[in-house]
Amino acid sequence: MNLTTMRTITLFALLFTLVHGNSIAQQEKGIIGYNNWLNPWTEFKPNKIDYGKPTQILSGNISKDKTLHKRDIYLLLGDVFVTDSTVLTIEPGTVIIGDYKTKGSLTISKNSAIIADGTHTDPIIFTSSRSVKKPGDWGGVFILGDAPTSKFGNESSLNYGLRPTDFESISYGGDNPDHSSGILRHVRIEFAGKRTKDYGYFNGLTLAGVGQQTIVENIMVSYCDGNSFQFYGGSVILDKLVSYKSSRNDYDFNYGTQCKIINSLAIRSPYVSSSDVPRSMYVSAYDNIEDADLTKAQTYVNAENLTLINLSSDLDYDIQVGLVNEAIYVGNDTSFMIDKSVISGFNPAVVFDNKIMINNENLSKLKFTRTYFNNCNGNIFRKGYTNNDDLESWYGSRAFDNVYSKGPDSETFIDAHTATRPDYRLRINRIIASNDTTDD
After folding, report:
1. Which residues contact 281 (CB under 8 A, 6 or more apart)?
2. Rounded Cα gap, residues 423 and 132, in angstroms
3. Which residues share a beta bridge with 270?
4. Which of 425, 427, 360, 353 is nearest to 390 (CA)?
5. Residue pLDDT, tens place only, 136-181
6. Residue 361 in 3-state DSSP?
7. Sign, CA torsion 176/65/224/222
8. Which of 109, 226, 410, 425 is the S-S candidate for 203 at Cβ 3.0 to 4.6 Å?
9. Contacts of 386 (CB under 8 A, 6+ apart)
10. pLDDT by residue (tens digit) across 26-48?
């Protein structure tokens, strides 16, 4: 073999390696995956689907082990409770419809469990009973566990106006962070979040005192009139969660939640949000400090590879008229860390509660690293303060490796505007802008 031939083979091998490497590469920030893991189990137009008419009714208490079958369609009539250490198993592909008239809901009591283990091609679906579906048509799903909260005492109770036959059916919290409430995997929850006169809005999925042995993966909550995901205490690991066009918060953490959330997505729209101040993530230690035991572990959220997007057809105008809020709100007495994530299209990206003093102790509990801030009207602010140069300088340091850019959705994400099968992964090599105005 002569020298020319060897050089040709070497160059061809190098070219093949570069092309092949780029074809299988994935962006490290935001939601990740060599394939679009949203397909095919998610649904971005659930109002266009006719799921059929109910053939079975669920009501009152389920106090014996029960399996819901794919061949049937189930109607949640009023408040339904799984009690007395019962296991509710739901087959892949099963449809459960929340009744509109009675505002149906499902509660798994803390000594019971749910095994809702759908598949990538056959998800389990909770949806509305109405032919024309709207946010708030029915209640939602509550899962109660035996893991700790930061409230006084070992037990608390839900305060949503549910009507159980026994107080134990709505109690949660204990001293077992490893407690298991079962499996939720490949599940969709659509058009939940009913409004009550005295107790506010239900949430799509509420996890209260849920322990880390509970499997919570590949859950999509869409068009919820309350919070998509609500967490009260517990110690949970969350993977591949999706919140789509919620009227209120996408992810709400409170009362001592110890949470690891990875590879998850929130898509907001300024045109469906409520009139209050909804965010992609709301992290708080308590609603009322009198209810919290500050000697216990307070809310801690560790987020990695999140993508938080506000989809707007005219972002500048929507910000001007007050339709766009911050993506993340961090309350006092909490710890929050986010890494390798994307925050795009907010006003601003992050707001700290004004009670948080800007000092080394607090900043050590509030970490933003290797995160891509795109198209935000400001980055990290303190509520009520117009001068946030100290925070911008701190988090803009190269030590945190954050990136700042101004790019349209069409150039930032692979496909953010396809109605049926969008792809919210970052485009390869689109992260080209960085903030070098400050140094460490």
Report:
1. 249, 250, 251, 252, 253, 266, 301, 303, 308, 327, 328, 329
2. 27
3. none
4. 360
5. 999 999 999 999 999 998 789 998 999 899 999 999 999 999 999 9
6. helix
7. positive
8. 226
9. none
10. 679 999 999 999 999 999 999 99
